[in-house]
Amino acid sequence: METQLAWLRTVVLVLDLGGTFVFALSGAALGIKRKLDLFGVLVLSVVAATAGGMMRDVLIGATPPAAILDYRYLVVCIIAGLALFFLHPFRGQAQIRDRLRTPVLVFDAAGLALFAVAGALKALAFHLGPLQAVLIGGLTAVGGGVVRDVLVSEVPTVLYSELYAIAALAGATVVVVGRALNFPSDTTAVAGAALCFVLRLIAIRRGWRLPTAW
Amino acid sequence: METQLAWLRTVVLVLDLGGTFVFALSGAALGIKRKLDLFGVLVLSVVAATAGGMMRDVLIGATPPAAILDYRYLVVCIIAGLALFFLHPFRGQAQIRDRLRTPVLVFDAAGLALFAVAGALKALAFHLGPLQAVLIGGLTAVGGGVVRDVLVSEVPTVLYSELYAIAALAGATVVVVGRALNFPSDTTAVAGAALCFVLRLIAIRRGWRLPTAW
Amino acid sequence: METQLAWLRTVVLVLDLGGTFVFALSGAALGIKRKLDLFGVLVLSVVAATAGGMMRDVLIGATPPAAILDYRYLVVCIIAGLALFFLHPFRGQAQIRDRLRTPVLVFDAAGLALFAVAGALKALAFHLGPLQAVLIGGLTAVGGGVVRDVLVSEVPTVLYSELYAIAALAGATVVVVGRALNFPSDTTAVAGAALCFVLRLIAIRRGWRLPTAW
Question: In this structure, is residue C83 part of a structural domain?
């Protein structure tokens, strides 16, 4: 039991740091697209990558949040932000908005998948019920992107984009159902993240949308 | 004493769920007005209805927040969102913005009233002082609307609208003063909510405004 | 040891109330600039002045936050808001935007400096590590301004402005290093706040910027 909990903590940490990295890339890409300077790009990386996890930790009572206690979160954000800032290959002014559209979407989808799963697992580890764990997973996944988009005055992706929150909730549900069936956490985490990521990318590709009121 | 506390919890729950329902309607109406798809409308319903209560619960240390622990909050949000999405009678593109103005305002005023009172009562139940309870009541009432408006890039109602925060603080004050005078919580809750709702509607109707700096 | 902790609490309180006052002025100035009415101006004062400290207190687990528990924070906000609303000397419509630019920037820089230092000291008092204290100091300093700007749909200063977050982190670092070297908290607080304030003002004056990606 003890070792299982330690293993669970490791799984959450790996998923969390992975999600942090890709969400930081999505924040950096948005910052570059909006022509922020280096520090603005880094701030947006950090916010995009840590806001969802900090909401999760505050809501489940795990304060101070992991992103503040554990310096590796910040290091991962800074590395991701610096890497994209200095290494991105888009030099011409004209096509940059278009060129950065796809990276933002793909990084964002990967972060969504990893955080949905990490959020649900951490909520379960804090003894929240199954529905609560799914909701916390969804909030962890969409939270960072919402704050990222609001900061640059864009309507957040979650409000209009294809199957965004649904994909996150689906990924979190896989983890919670897997736990109820006593499947190993690492397997269900991979399955849940894969489901969320694939769902989201197919939805973008095919332009799947729910109906609007007219 | 024990039964009184249980009764207080019931009063807070009823007010909370009522406020959740009407704020969810306000969020859904705003989402429909902004032509979000079904899921965007539901997200905006949930956010408008739960953000204020979650801020309250985080600030008074009641984590995880009621809106996450108790599945009825979410069910109420989804029902309100679905109902307005499918049943609203405004089919023509042209007049929808105008037609939905009044429902958003009325639902919002009702949610303001119920949450101001519920927030103040819950803060008192968590042994906060009278001034703190009034402030927490005000924040509970305006919080959801602020997040709702910010998410669709509108300046929040509380910053420019007629007696918005004042009405919420007035409603919360009735509850706190009533508690100090040992009046029953349910009676003062009804009185406080009525005062807030009526104040706000009259202020909208008459266009009551405070002076601007010029 | 006991008296040292009491002295530290006093230092944090004085810095906090000072930062509250100047950030409230920055919020009021922005509200007047955006032609909000009296209550909107007061709401913006309160939000600008208390949001950073409330984030800090929620993240370090010091709930309810000082700004809610201690009525002096609110009184300071209201006084600052009323004073600027009624006493500001800018009567002509035309030049007001320009005239209020500098006060917003200077008040904001002073608040940044005081909150960076107060945030780091409070985090240390809650036994967070040195890196955590620097981060919490930075977040305390920039948090209120971010919420203030987002509420009126402006891209927050921290994302594009000259050495904004860097100045805050530098001020917080002085406090944390000073504590490690056993310097008295009040001296390092003054030194850290002065460094942050001067860095920020010089950066504005000289237009120091980091490079953008092109």
Answer: yes
